[in-house]
Design goal:
Layout: E1 3-4, E2 9-11, E3 14-16, E4 20-21, H1 29-41, E5 44-48, H2 55-64, E6 74-78, H3 88-95, H4 106-114, E7 119-124, H5 130-143, E8 147-153, E9 162-166, H6 188-200, H7 208-220, H8 225-232, H9 240-254, H10 263-277, H11 281-290, H12 299-307, H13 315-324, E10 329-331, E11 334-336, H14 339-351, H15 355-376, H16 382-391, H17 393-406, H18 408-417, H19 419-424, H20 428-439, H21 445-461, H22 465-482, H23 488-501, H24 505-522, H25 525-541, H26 549-561, H27 564-581, H28 584-601, H29 604-620, H30 624-641, H31 647-663, H32 666-678, H33 681-689, H34 705-715, H35 720-727, H36 731-745, H37 750-760
Parallel strand pairs: 5-8, 5-9, 6-7, 7-8
Antiparallel strand pairs: 1-4, 2-3, 10-11
Helix pairs in contact: 1-2, 6-7, 6-8, 7-9, 8-10, 9-10, 11-13, 11-14, 15-16, 15-17, 15-18, 17-18, 18-20, 18-21, 20-21, 21-22, 21-23, 22-23, 23-24, 23-25, 24-25, 25-26, 25-27, 26-27, 27-28, 27-29, 28-29, 28-33, 29-30, 29-31, 29-33, 30-31, 30-32, 30-33, 34-36, 34-37, 35-36
């Protein structure tokens, strides 16, 4: 592979996710032109050919020239890490940013999202799940008239309307023809060999002898790009003449295979066999063991599977030699292996009888990553760990798929450890699926308790309230039978949320109070903080938010334990309480702090909540047009993430919007709504954070409205906590304000702040 499949670009037609070029494409000008012509005429174009023939690289070159023709984007879906065709729809939906919707199959959601849009979708490496690809392609093309698909596969999808086009080999010269040797570089195959040889050895220089050898090498390899690249990688250790001689022996052996096999498949296998034969025993063993990874791996992952092999050579040295041989390539902190090489390594692993042992090590690695990440997804380093799990998603799937039939308890541990990832990244349906499959066979009681509770939570957030209740009740029953308090507080907290979702606030309060009591007895600060928050939420939704202490206590705990998503939720609710109290400045401060946290985390669900809360704040300020615009942005985001909300919250928001629409003239209201729905996520956040009333920085000795207010309360003798309760803001926010006041006034303690207030007799400004 020589492309970066994670790069996003923006063309005149809109957002596109098309791979970036990492190397120059040789000898494909005519092919690119022909494929672009076919792509304009066919709704499904499948590029076929043997592994290593350059299907992916050609597809990338083609679609990068087509982006301006698709107003709704060109989207590249890499399928090689996907081992289970049942996850194909999830993979496509993830790339297209189509979230799961409550009570709706993901395929139906995907079809509805595509609708009449004009998009080009590239399905790359379909051969291992070709039936699933054929079914999905036929459904999308049949339901979405503006969608076109380019597929790459070793075989055609074989559905009506498909145009299959075989990717040809690179042009190969006749090395015996009379010509200046420099003219050999006009052939794509030779130019590719020379380019890769120079990359492998900066001292390599073309000459008449080396160019004739190169032409013969390319001819023996039938112009297959991957085979040529593997040959060129040996230039640092072999002359071109030696490469040619070794290649002749390998090809002679393998061409004696079945005549019914494709010739280029035999040639590619000969190239890989030959490259493999050049490796030492450690390199061969490492190549085979690394084949268990799907979607790449980090060095520590290679070290784990290598340690079990019982070899003395350091993993980093062996991996480095494989990189030198172009059997691995590195991008950032990860190594990746071409799919054809990975399949070859898998065969060797099976032949050695080591597949299960290596996959067990792979499972150990994935489980270690998952369980290390689990608590960090509630901490200050959450963004980094989410990115880490994004990169390991293919490995998580591969490990779960293998372990479910062999190690169901460990499989369920892994599926449960990844719970925060399933939720925060919107993979709730997939997470529920893994949990249900694991629960069907796993027997470990503590693991089952945690999995049932998590299944209830994910089902609740995805809108399947019946499934949520069933899982949570099963968790309670198992807990009673086993006399274990593994999830006692959390499951009651989730039952409280379930009741709140249904509008039964009395039952919700009972469950949440039980959760809080259990959390105190168990000294479980995390569960206690969330129970207190949810009790405050119930009080707020019921219109009975009086004593702010539970919410302040919740916020203090969440900040202390570093739970950033929870902190953002608590700050957001503080802002909503402040709106109800008429404290618009306090609301703006709390909501702004919450929005910045959720923006940094990429937490789109809570960004949605923040936009709606800022819409309520705008209405409170009588800025009704801004309220409608923010509500429109939230409405579009809600459709995108597929989130459901509390009926009481929705009723409150709808009431405010109805009022705003009665006050704003209809044309202006409609324009504001349309403007909001058209805003991108970043622009919507900027609009929310740019609300009037947020005090700008002032010169030394001059306090803002909020700082004057804080200074007056300090002068009255209140502690920071008491000020926080009075103003419905976080204690840490008070600490920041007090520090700013002291800095601006040039004083070093609270007594001097009080003296300044008395002297100036400056009450809080309005």
């Amino acid at each position: 592979m020589d492309v970066d499949i994670d790069r996003s670009t923006s063309g005149r037609g809109g957002l596109h996710r098309v791979p970036a070029h990492l190397t120059r494409l040789y000898g494909r000008d005519d092919a690119v032109e022909e494929v672009r012509r076919l792509a304009g005429a066919a709704r499904l174009l499948t590029l076929t050919g043997a592994g290593g023939s350059g299907k992916t690289r050609l597809a990338v070159e083609v679609v990068r020239g087509l982006v301006d023709g698709y107003t709704d984007g060109v989207w590249f879906v890499a399928l090689s890490p996907l081992e289970d065709g049942r996850l194909l729809t999830h993979a496509v939906a993830n790339v297209l940013d189509v979230p799961e919707q409550p009570d709706q199959p993901l395929l139906a959601t995907l079809v509805a999202s595509l609708g009449d849009s004009r998009r080009l979708i590239v399905l790359d490496n379909c051969e291992h799940i070709v039936d699933s690809c054929a079914i999905l392609a036929e459904r999308l093309l049949g339901s979405c008239p503006g969608v076109r698909i380019i597929a790459t596969s070793r075989e055609a999808l074989r559905i009506p309307g498909e145009v299959a086009w075989r990717v040809p080999s690179l042009d190969v010269p006749d090395p015996d023809a009379v010509r200046p040797w420099q003219a050999l570089l006009d052939y794509g195959a030779v130019a590719l060999f020379v380019d890769r040889a120079r990359a492998a050895d900066s001292c390599f220089e073309p000459s008449e002898a080396t160019m004739v050898d190169a032409a013969r090498i390319c001819g023996r390899l039938d112009g297959i790009p991957l085979a040529i690249e593997l040959a060129a990688a040996c230039v640092p250790v072999l002359t071109t003449g030696e490469i040619l001689e070794r290649l002749r022996d390998s090809l002679a052996l393998l061409t004696r295979g079945p005549r019914t096999a494709a010739g280029r498949q035999r040639t590619l296998r000969a190239t890989i066999d030959w490259s493999y034969d050049l490796l030492g025993s450690d390199e061969r063993a490492m190549l085979a063991r690394l084949s268990v990874f799907a979607g790449g791996f980090r060095l520590e992952a290679a070290e784990m599977v290598w340690a079990a092999a019982g070899r003395s050579a350091p993993a980093i040295e062996v991996v480095g030699r494989l990189v030198d041989r172009s059997l691995l390539y590195r991008r950032a902190d990860r190594y990746e292996m071409a799919e054809t090489i990975r399949q070859y390594g898998r065969e060797r692993l099976v032949e050695a009888g080591e597949l299960d042992e290596a996959r067990d090590q792979h499972l150990r690695y994935c489980l270690a990553i998952g369980e290390e990440a689990e608590p960090r997804l509630r901490g200050t380093d959450i963004a980094r760990w989410l990115r880490r799990l994004d990169a390991e998603h293919g490995n998580l799937r591969a490990a779960l798929d293998w372990a479910l039939a062999r190690e169901p308890d460990r499989a369920l541990r892994l599926a449960t450890a990844a719970g925060g990832f399933w939720y925060l990244r919107g993979h709730m349906g997939e997470g529920c699926s893994w949990l249900r499959r694991g629960l069907a066979h796993a027997m470990d009681v503590p693991t089952r308790l945690r999995a049932l509770n998590l299944l209830g939570w994910l089902a609740l957030r995805s809108g399947d309230l019946a499934a949520a209740e069933s899982a949570l009740r099963d968790c309670l029953d198992l807990e009673d039978r086993a006399a274990m308090g593994e999830c006692a507080a959390e499951v009651r907290n989730n039952l409280g949320l379930l009741a709140c979702w249904r509008g039964d606030l009395v039952t919700a309060r009972r469950h949440l109070e039980e959760s809080a009591d259990l959390s105190r007895r168990l000294d479980d600060e995390h569960s206690l903080a969330h129970a207190l928050f949810n009790l405050s939420l119930v009080a707020h939704l019921s219109g009975q938010a009086g004593d702010p202490s539970p919410l302040i206590d919740s916020l203090e705990i969440l900040q202390r334990i570093g739970d950033r998503p929870g902190t953002a939720l608590a700050l957001g609710l503080l802002g909503c309480v402040a709106i109800e109290k008429g404290d618009v400045a306090g609301a703006a401060a709390s909501l702004g702090e919450a929005m910045r946290i959720t923006r940094d985390l990429g937490d789109r669900v809570n960004v949605l909540f923040g936009l709606e809360a800022f819409a309520l704040l705008a209405a409170r300020r009588a800025d009704y047009r801004r309220a409608i615009t923010l509500a429109g942005a939230a409405d579009a985001l809600r459709e995108s993430v597929g989130a459901i909300t509390f009926s009481l919250w929705k009723a409150r928001l709808d009431g405010v919007l109805d009022l705003a629409r009665r006050i704003v003239v209809p044309e202006a209201a409609d324009a504001a709504w349309t403007e909001g729905r058209a805003l991108g996520l970043a622009d919507a956040i900027d609009l929310a954070l740019g609300e009037p009333g947020a005090a700008p920085a002032t010169g030394a000795g001059t306090l803002s409205r909020r700082e004057n207010e804080i200074a007056a309360l300090v002068a009255s003798g209140l502690t920071n906590r008491e000020i926080a309760e009075r103003l419905y803001i976080a204690p840490r926010t008070v600490e920041t304000h007090v520090a700013n006041v002291m800095n601006k006034l040039g004083v070093t303690n609270r007594s001097l702040v009080a003296a300044w207030v008395v002297e100036r007799r400056r009450p809080p400004a309005e």
